[in-house]
Amino acid sequence: MIWSLLGQAPVSLAYYKSSLSIYKTKPSTPLNRFSSGFPAPISTPAIRVFCSKSGRVGSMASSVQNQGSISYLTQREAAEVDETLMGPLGFSVDQLMELAGLSVATSIAEVYKPSEYNRVLAICGPGNNGGDGLVAARHLYHFGYKPFVCYPKRTQKPLYSGLVTQLESLSIPFLSVNELPMDLSKDFDILVDAMFGFSFHGAPRPPFDELIQKLVNLHNYEQVQQKSPVIVSVDIPSGWHVEEGDVGGEGIKPDMLVSLTAPKLCAKKFSGPHHFLGGRFVPPAIAEKYKLCLPQYPGTSMCVRIGKPPQIDISALRENYISPEFREDQVEADPLDLFRKWFDDAMTAGLKEPNAMALSTTGKDGKPSSRMVLLKGVDKGGFVWYTNYESQKGRELSENPHASLLFYWDGLNRQVRVEGSVQKVSEEESEQYFHSRPRGSQIGAIVSKQSTVVPGRHVLHQQYKELEEKYSNEGLIPKPKHWGGYRLQPNRFEFWQGQTSRLHDRLEYSPQEIDGKRSSSPPWFSQTFQLTSIPLPITCKKSKQINPED
Questions:
Q1: Contact (Cβ atoms closer than 8 angstroms) between residue 515 and residue 528
Q2: Is 502 an active-site residue?
Q3: How confident is the model at residue 519 (pLDDT cuts 50, 70, 90)?
């Protein structure tokens, strides 16, 4: 027996099936209250970690909060790793520097958005760590930031002079130490500390001792200023001991640390809110040699968060959207044409699964339920998706054939709401789409009895294997009767685009009454729809005002 979500009553352990995804009910942690009555910070999901074991690189589950599962390198080991990478493994210095600088820039972009943290000062030292900072400044420029560079001890090697030339070609300003203000908090939002890396020994010499002190002094300014620039240290906070950290306790206290290749021992003493790992180039040979356990990078990302997640006040989470103007007099009269345009924009932007939509339904009990499904067709008749007719959504649609769809395209600050009546597509249409799917998906649709309880995942795998063998020599897999498509015929559209200060644009299309009746005959979406907009002024008599919403 395990406890229900609120921990008030025991419930039976159960697996629920949705397609071939299995969800296991877990005991919840009691909610701790904090900051204006909001629940305690949401726990970060587990991350996969790869580490050397039995001569090969494998994977294991590890909580992001469990730093004990992450490997940390000594100064000697860090130097040996670099030598191995640039020796028998064939990497060049400029390759590693480019990957490291890109990792730093992407880590910054993960947390500090250019709309709020735009002005970046990269303080670069004479070595490889400084080169990482120069590369990061270039990438930050292309990410939409406004970088400045302080590079007081320039290295005349072609690699470094080439990086300077690249930055100068982008008109990125170079500032001398004397040109920097005494108080860096007034002119910059982000300070990139790229002065010294893991190979540094001894005490910093001028002018870097002065620059480090400027970063240290920011903690004094924080006591009297509402906002101080954040400090991002590259691999090692400058002035720290590579293994022992901030020995005297009077060094730089960065808000973000971007460890490269693998975190160094001093990273264990880092207490800031954001610790990232970058430099996605560790091959299995090095992982095995040094017994490294490192988190797996998500997707195509060049960085991954490690260590404890920051304690976040949920009530303070907000985004100030910056979008092009969205005016009523600039949009199509036909809502489907506007939807297709926005959908094409989402495709062009490379957003993941732009056809993903939240489908909301209610049964005869009036209780709403939502889930994500995939749009598989849109035409004059409406929006089409496919599913199990015996699932919860199928049962609810049989009781109440009305639903709403929600598309959300985060990268474009856009969402589209569609409401309407729902009916099943023809059996012929369902057959045609079913047999266009991969054979594995066809078998999965037969095996999966959605929204029902199963003993465990092994049962699904066994049934799948049996059907796979059964149909291995047959050309056509029969479509199950309980599987097919639905079509939502819209009677309302709302197009939303995020804008600054929560004054979002919302345009609504709804059926217009003609001679006292709502038009429903094709083309139902043509001139029979009225257009409304907010927060723009309304002049059309048929329009009604809609206030912006969060």
A1: no
A2: yes
A3: low
